[in-house]
Design goal:
Number of helices: 2
Distance between the termini: 51 Å
InterPro entries: DUF4426
Shape: globular
Low-confidence stretches: 7-18
Protein name: DUF4426 domain-containing protein
Order of helices and strands: HEEHEEEEEEE
Radius of gyration: 20 Å
Strand content: over 45%
Largest sheet: 5 strands, antiparallel
Helix content: 10-25%
Keywords: Signal
Length: about 150
């Protein structure tokens, strides 16, 4: 009886550990810190942009289009994007690379950068973005996303 309890407890502990590890693996990092600055990045389908907003900023909406969104904020309490310079590329799994051309978007005091991108269904891309921070230092962020 005691042996069955120990086996059940060990299996429960193993299940909880595996669940915790799986949960941790799903967390996708979406920022990098460089000194006083935080570079926040994401990739989203263009369909998420409301038509009137797309028209206002001349953004193309389509099922095979995504946007790479990058902004720079002060790390301690910064909520507004800061001016920076961006360039980069996206590379697929067979090392085909395409340049990212970022467009600066200003909404009030906030500044962020969008780069349009065409993609194939369920394509996995590695993004490398060179960022010149407001202090003039150049940094590179790299991340991978499945679209």
């Amino acid at each position: 009886m005691n042996r069955n309890f120990n086996v059940a407890a060990a299996l429960t502990l193993l299940f909880l550990t595996a669940s915790a590890m799986a949960q941790q693996a799903r967390v996708i990092k979406n920022y990098e810190d460089f000194g006083d600055y935080r570079v926040i990045f994401s990739v989203f389908n263009s369909d998420f942009i409301q038509p009137d907003i797309a028209q206002q900023y001349q953004l193309v909406r389509a099922k095979d289009r995504a946007y790479v969104n990058v902004s720079v904020v002060k790390k301690d309490g910064g909520t507004k994007g800061l001016s920076a310079e961006m360039s980069g590329n996206a590379t697929n799994l067979i090392q085909q690379s395409r340049p990212l051309k970022f467009k600066e978007i200003r909404e009030g005091d906030a500044v962020y950068y969008l780069a349009p991108l065409r993609f194939e269904k369920e394509e996995t891309l590695t993004f490398n973005v060179d960022v010149t921070l407001p202090n003039g230092k150049k940094q590179t962020i790299s991340f991978r996303r499945k679209l």
